[in-house]
Amino acid sequence: MAISEKNFKKLKQIVGADNITKTYEELFCYSYDASTCGYLPDAVVFPKTVKEVSEIVLLANCDKFFLIPRGAGSGMTGGSIATLGGVVVAMNRFNRIIEIDKNNFIAIVEPGVITNHLHQAVEKEGLFYPPDPASSTFSTIGGNLAECAGGPRAVKYGVTRDYVLGLEVVLPTGEIINTGVKTAKGVVGYDLTRLIVGSEGTLGIITKAILKLIPLPEAAMTMMVVFDEMETAAHAVSQILRRGYIPKTIEYMDNASIRCVEDYLKIGLPIEASALLLIEVDGKKDELTKLIEPLKILCEQLGAKETKIAKTKEETESLWKARKAVSPALFRYAPDKINEDIVVPKDKIPDMVHKIKELSSKTGLLMATFGHAGDGNIHCNIMLDKKDKEQVEKAKYALDEIFNYTLKLGGTISGEHGVGITKRDYISKEIGRDELNLMKRIKSLFDPKGILNPGKIFPV
User: Fold this and answer.
1) What pTM was computed for the model?
2) Do residues 382 and 261 share a domain?
3) Residue 132 is part of which domain span?
4) Closest by Cα among 312, 294, 306 to 246
């Protein structure tokens, strides 16, 4: 539903003339996210206070035009774009870290805070906020909450929802509600906090979050492990976890990823390797060697071609720079990609990797994989040229097969990217009819007029 000139003027009165726009050049900047899908909104509004957000929502609910909450636009599934038109509610101005409570290990923040800025702020106080999506240097807390972001540390520390104690939320009907607690425990009533986290901006607009912090580990140590076969590397990951080791991270890159990043960064990665693991442990400084040495020995016993423990901060940073550069660097192979974040049970990683290799061979499309091997989260990138209809059809076939096999192994089709629009047509593969209908009824209860982030999650 497009916004009328009358409502545009009313929005301008709410936020001020400098905090709303409908010029084409500025609208274009808010028409896409990292999914590369693009839809032009009718306007973009930049509220500053929860009262302004509430007034915006009340107006939209009364006059029935769509609202699309947006953080940094770094989402991978089209969750923050105006697929049906409407007004993008950009939360950039909600950028305050309101409080860091060192005594009670909590932080109170607004949704526009850059994730890495929160990391830096709490670490100065000797505290730790573990969720660390690859986009942490530019993604926002609000976007992380909307998608329940994960990251490399999830194997040991969990994901975003595990660190959210409470929220301030503007409902699609305009009410301002507060969910959850500031305490370590709280079981009064339904857990609305966990319902809203991961709801992709369809149930409310988050304006404040109470986040749990933990003590900052003294130090960390990183090891690169090189394998001649991807299946051997995947088996090593499975064995590490099966034997009771819980590193801070276990990340992996396949050969296509290694080659592409080395060509991009020129940092000396082993381009002949079929797979590379990055294993990091953390804890007290004098215990790190005792933690990482058994992992080094185990990897060598399981067939590692090379193991190398980073000796300096610079070596460690170089390794992590390589891992975080994989996704953008892959565009050297093809102009387009389909980026999926499937998750399988940890002991099924070798099976999933083998299946992806089979599909790559069968379709002739390069399929690069990397990701969070420690929790079974595999980022599978199908590289293609979307102008080539044959490649597009092959990619669709491969994607369908990947999702089917993922579910057959007992996994899920999305670990941290959400559903948005790119996976909504596949959701019924995983979620049953009765469960989907229940979710739709919850959406209708929160948003009876369907104004908030329409067209997301559920097939249209």
Assistant:
1) 0.95
2) yes
3) 97-215
4) 294
- Rounded Cα gap, residues 257 and 325, in angstroms: 9
pLDDT tens digits, residue range 185-204? 999 999 999 999 999 999 99
* pLDDT higher than 90, residue 332: no
> Which helix or strand (DSSP H or E) is residue 318 part of?
helix 313-324
Residue the block writes with tokens 């670490």:
123
- Co-location of 201 and 237 in the same domain: no
DSSP 15-79: H-GGGEE--HHHHHHTSB-TT--B---SEEE---SHHHHHHHHHHHHHHT--EEEESSS--SSST
Q: Can you tell me which residue has the tokens 């850059």?
A: 114
Number of domains in the chain: 2
Secondary structure (3-state) at 7? helix
CA 223 to chain centre: 24
Cα-based torsion angle of the residue sequence 426, 429, 434, 440 in order, rounded to the nearest 10 degrees: -10
Residue 338 has pLDDT above 90, yes or no: yes
Query: Domain boundary at 167, 200, 215, which?
Result: 215
User: Which residue blocks in 201-303 are alpha helix, DSSP H?
Assistant: 230-242, 255-265, 288-301
Give bridge partners of residue 412 from the DSSP assignment. Answer: 343
State the average pLDDT for the chain.
Answer: 95
Same structural domain for residues 194 and 148? yes
Picking from 83, 209, 227, 231, the residue whose alpha carbon sits closest to that of residue 148 is: 209
pLDDT (tens digit per residue) in 44-56: 999 999 999 999 9
Q: How confident is the model at residue 1 (pLDDT cuts 50, 70, 90)?
A: low
Q: Look up residue 78 and give its two tokens.
A: 């089209």
Tell me which DSSP letter residue 443 carries: H
- d(CA 358, CA 362) in angstroms, rounded, equals 6
Same-domain pairing of 208 and 113? yes
Instruction: Provide CB contacts within 8 A for 6, sequence distance 6+.
Output: none
- The closest alpha carbon to 401, from 424, 426, 377, 372, belongs to 426
Identify which of 395, 396, 447 has the alpha carbon closest to the alpha carbon of residue 425. 396
Q: Are 392 and 255 within one domain?
A: yes
Question: pLDDT by residue (tens digit) across 132-190?
Answer: 998 999 999 999 999 999 999 999 999 999 999 999 999 999 999 999 999 999 999 99
Higher local confidence (pLDDT), 333 or 382? 382
* Gyration radius (Cα) of the chain, Å: 22
The predicted pLDDT at position 23 comes to 97
Q: What is the Cα–Cα distance from 439 to 424, expressed in whole angstroms?
A: 13
Q: Strands of 52-154 (E only): list them.
A: 67-70, 87-90, 97-101, 106-109, 127-128
Instruction: Give the pLDDT confidence of 221-267 residue by residue, as tens digits.
Output: 999 999 999 889 988 998 999 999 999 999 999 998 999 999 999 99
| Beta strand 106-109 pairing with 127-128 | unpaired
Q: Are 205 and 170 in contact (CB under 8 A)?
A: yes
